[in-house]
Amino acid sequence: HATEHAIQVHRIFxxxxxxxxxxxxxxxxxxxxxxxxxGPSGCGKTTTLRMIAGFIMPSGGTIRVNGRDVxxxxxxxxxxxxxxQNYALWPHMTVAENVAFGLKLRKHGKDFIRNKVxxxxxxxxxxxxxxxxxxxxxxxxxxRVALARALALEPQLLLMDEPLSNLDRALRIAMRRELKQLxxxxxxxxxxxxxxxxxxxxxxxxxxxxxxxxxxxxxxPFEIYEDPQSEFVADFVGTTNFLDGEVLRTQGGQAVVQxxxxxxxxxxxxxxxxxxxxxxxxxxxxxxxxxxxxxxxGANVFAATVSFIEYFGPTIRYxxxxxxxxxxxxxxxVDRPLAIxxxxxxxxxxxxxxxxxxK
Length: 359
Ligand code: ADP
Ligand code: MG
Known about the structure:
It comes from Aquamicrobium terrae. The protein contains eight helices and 20 strands.
């Protein structure tokens, strides 16, 4: 039922002249849930979020907040908090004044405002910074002021548009944890926009993947990563090896797939083996490609050559050539590294492929 959802977006559209920024988007956010909108730049994330906040009117569709139709309500009647990508702090106002701003607009009393500001600053770790100006704060602190300002209004739900994208990597990762812990502690329903797959996967209960104004997939992080189900999701979230082939024969719960333009034959687990001759696209994550000096036992063991090496520190990515096909293999940096051009063995567990239909 509608009232069970904190946010219910039903078939919303946004048209800018001939540009369709958001095209028939629907999803729900449950009470206390953390949901991310994830997708490349220009896919309609901000437009979707701003329609929910009330800053942009949809060209069609319905938006409900806690069961109430808010589609035609102004932002201040929606009880929704918003954290902007660039923080949008008032530069001439102190931290306390910035946080108090929305409360003053709502004509609350002085003591009430002082209490709420104090609370919001305490919760975001900013007690003691009341009298600073934004320019006297680090990027991470400014980001927290923006968050405190949203929290001070005690919104029923919090909308955030790439709130960490202006921070450097170390701070961004620290702030991810802080934000997520705060959100859990306050049990705050959150819709979070990001183009950063790590952020979406690590923080969210569920992820709405968007592409070209449309919803490509809604699922939990591990489902999105482990079984992307479409080429777009597989490509956008993580790195994927794509192999096109044809089913040679099926045996029990397995298919033998002949990879196109190559002598490579793969044994692939498949609950419902596709028909013989069916064209298949196989997805294979790089960390599922095992690389070793010694010949391993089992199915899908192939001789290969290392043709390219990317050293990341904790992991190493090898590009290996197998029967004229190029595969990405990512391994933990625990064994002696392989050298370029070295002969190696590649093994792939038949259960680690994912299949999608080839169009
Ligand atoms: P994202 O936040 O995912 O990067 P946006 O929601 O900002 O994407 O934009 C989605 C699409 O709509 C883009 O193609 C963008 O150029 C277009 N768009 C956004 N706002 C406007 C506008 N005010 N006028 C015209 N086109 C717009
Ligand atoms: Mg955006």
